[in-house]
Specification:
Length: 193
Amino acid sequence: MTAVHESIMTTEEFEKLAEAADRIAEGVRLEFIDGQLGAKAMPDGDHGRIIQWLIRLFVALRPELFLTPEQGLRVDRYRTGRARPDGVLAAADAFVGQGEWADPEPMLMAVEVTSGDQDTERRDRQEKPKAYADTGIPVYLLIDRATCELVVYSDPNGERYDRVLSVPFGATVQLPPPVDVHLDTDPLKAWVR
């Protein structure tokens, strides 16, 4: 028996809602993944510091790339979803001239840093790996502050990632191609509570 999943709104209706939320409710960041509406928690200081750390690392290790925070993306197999990863790794000019919801084709990696909200399990650990794999994003990096683990998803097959590697904060991990960098996760220990 297969479950029937029906969207609560169209992509166009979501975009209008997200635009209105941006105007009237400062700090509200909406997403629309797999036909479901979600709101991202506002990042705390440690969350922001982790993104700063990653930006600096990639400037040093892969200067031809840039980790863009909060870039809206068209996700899911038919690009009907809308996500705002905490960071998007791509060539520096990859999103120039695109609107709020960019084509994910030039992306090498999506990054999410978990927050303390109740939707983290569903959104960051279940929905986003599926949506990013459906979209063909080569690498999904989840920095899970609740479990103190870095999770690297790679090799998308159109439905899911075939490879998932979890390492504890403090380990060094090789991010797979096309990212292809060694990442020492020791600094992450300082930014969890």
